[in-house]
Amino acid sequence: MQTFSGVGVAPGRVLGPVRQMPKPIQEPHANVNIPADVTVESQAQRIKDASKAVQAELRERAANANGEGKEVLEATALMAADPMLVKSAIKLLKHETPGGARTAERAVWEAAATVAETLKALGGYMAERVADVLDVRARIVSELRGLPAPGIPASEVPFILAAEDLAPADTATLDPAKVIALITSGGGPQSHTAILARALGLPAVVAAAGVDGIDDGTEVYVDGAAGTITAEPGEELRVAAKVWANQASTLAAFTGDNTLADGVRVPLLANVGTGADAVKAAGAGAEGVGLLRTEFCFLDRDTEPTVEEQIAAYGAVFAAFPAKKVVVRTLDAGADKPLPFLTNADEPNPALGVRGYRTDLTSPGVLERQLEAIAAAEAAHEAEVWVMAPMISTAEEAARFADLCHAAGLKTPGVMVEVPSAALTAETVLGQVSFASLGTNDLTQYAMAADRQLGPLATLNDPWQPAVLRLIKLTADGAATASSASGQAKPVGVCGEAAADPALAVVLIGLGVATLSMSPRALAGVAAVLKTVTVDQARELAGIALAAPSAAAARAAVREHLPVLNDLGL
Amino acid sequence: MSERTATIASRVGLHARPAAIFAEAAGELDLEVTIARQGEPADEAMDAASILSLMSLGASQGDVVVLRAEGTGADEALDKLVKILETDHDAE
């Protein structure tokens, strides 16, 4: 038995064989001296053979796929042995080619790059195929080098996927019927791997050094709550996985109307991006939407969507929650979500740049048109619409946003609290608006000055950090003072990943948070734990967490007081 | 040299599934077939068996293309390929 430990980011206890994600393919070197005995003919043959082999493999996968996936694989298989691609690669092997003779690997790399550029320039559907061309290129180059094909490994049996970290592109091809857990040596609690795992409900452990070296096929036990991975587990852990499997099926039902043990209502809401997400969230029992990410309507576009398109997109979400609360976050572009018509890609420090609400400074009008669309969509539906701006740093910004909302006819303006300055001045900020929502992912990254995506900083990038918990408490306290001063309730919610951690959810309620919004998958687990505690107990646990000397100590101390977590495997 | 013109029938134009069906059919022939937009010089025509070339041609529904091939069986082969281009595969 060998044990690896990391940061547990999505609960669950499972057992299965490991499959390693191949390392991303490196660009072949240019200007390599080609030995005199290597002929153009032999290299051309290698390219032809490799492209045929890749084509055969993709065809075989297409034969086992269905629907749209099958069509994509069939088209990609054709690209792999495309005569134009192969011919232009072979041309690059010759000495008389400008730039001189290339290695077979380099020739394929450059030939595919040229094709990709042509398709990109055509825009639209063709530009979307660029990813397929680059995927085919990586496969042919891997074949030439005798390495396993890049991407999530194909497997007949369900497996535990091990990797350094997953990229957003990998996550699109992940089949949740085959992958039963994710374990990575890099990444942090807010990395793409973590967010994906929570969205799919897959147990996951990140920043677990050494797991990218586990041999393929090794049987491991993953505990996504404890953050541990055990190779060749004993009988006890096998039983634990079985018990979890039984419990998971009973946990799956959340029926809405979440209450604490003393009957106090704590609405559990969902984070959604599209109308389809909203329908699923409503089906999972969500009592409303705590975070509608509107940028999904804007991403992958060269120009701003029209007001009409936006009305339709927001309306599709509102329609899923009649008479329920839907909190719309205005466009949050910038940093890891660049938009060509709104953000500047050359900023030296994008996380501290013109992002979120700040893009209104450089591209005025976009926000006003968005508010107009939200108001029109609200008028056409029954949902109770609240609107909040991301990346608010000052009370002045909050006041201006509230003015814009009122001018558009939107009655409930609010702010995201992600910047520590907004948490520190919560009383004045909340004096200007009707509510606040804590974005704990960014709040943590800014409070700890630790990039969300960096594996080595995972322990800093933890919402259990006492500094982060204090900022949350300051926000809730400031809002309470602003409420009494104005005579109007000014609730504070949490819509970051922190709300999906059942133990942390208890602490958040104890700190004074009124609602929690999360990936719909997490609703049942959070509800199951909240119903076992009273408000007073939650406050006591929040006090314990605030007084802890470290994030790990805070988590451990709170978990110790919540034995239900262990019983449920959460 | 045999030559045929064809009008693209598929609603999405000559890419995605229609392009895959056509490239595959052209690739199975023992002849080299080229494709170009009508009015473009024959020496700029592209390999009809290359799905990447077909995609970069960017032909939409209603566009007219010219197919060319040389050798035995060229006429029959081109007739077969014209038929594929003039079928709306998205309607199936």
From TrEMBL, chain A:
**Can you supply one Gene Ontology CC term for this chain's record?**
cytoplasm
InterPro entries for the chain: PEP-util_enz_mobile_dom, PEP-utilizing_PTS_enzyme, PEP_util_C, Phosphohistidine_dom_sf, PTS_EI, PTS_EI-like, PTS_EIN, PtsI_HPr-bd_sf
User: Which keywords accompany this UniProt record?
Assistant: Cytoplasm, Kinase, Magnesium, Metal-binding, Phosphotransferase system, Sugar transport, Transferase, Transport
For this UniProt entry, what is the primary localization, expressed as one broad class? cytoplasm
Q: Which cofactor does it need?
A: Mg(2+)
**PEP-utilising enzyme mobile domain residues:** 159-227
User: What name appears for this protein in its UniProt entry?
Assistant: Phosphoenolpyruvate-protein phosphotransferase
From TrEMBL, chain B:
- Where found in the cell? Cytoplasm
Any one Gene Ontology BP term:
phosphoenolpyruvate-dependent sugar phosphotransferase system
Major localisation: cytoplasm
The record ties this protein, via NCBIfam families, to: PTS_HPr_family (TIGR01003)
Q: What is this protein called?
A: Phosphocarrier protein HPr
Under Gene3D superfamilies, the record lists: HPr-like
Species name for this entry? Arthrobacter cupressi
Q: Does the keyword Ion transport apply?
A: no
PROSITE patterns membership: PTS_HPR_DOM, PTS_HPR_HIS
Membrane-crossing ranges are none
Swiss-Prot/TrEMBL keywords? Cytoplasm, Phosphotransferase system
Domain annotation HPr: ranges = 1-92
Any Gene Ontology CC annotation: cytoplasm
- Matches recorded under SUPFAM superfamilies: HPr-like
Claim: Transmembrane is one of the keywords in the record:
no
Pfam families listed in its UniProt record:
PTS-HPr (PF00381)
Its biological function?
A: General (non sugar-specific) component of the phosphoenolpyruvate-dependent sugar phosphotransferase system (sugar PTS). This major carbohydrate active-transport system catalyzes the phosphorylation of incoming sugar substrates concomitantly with their translocation across the cell membrane. The phosphoryl group from phosphoenolpyruvate (PEP) is transferred to the phosphoryl carrier protein HPr by enzyme I. Phospho-HPr then transfers it to the PTS EIIA domain.
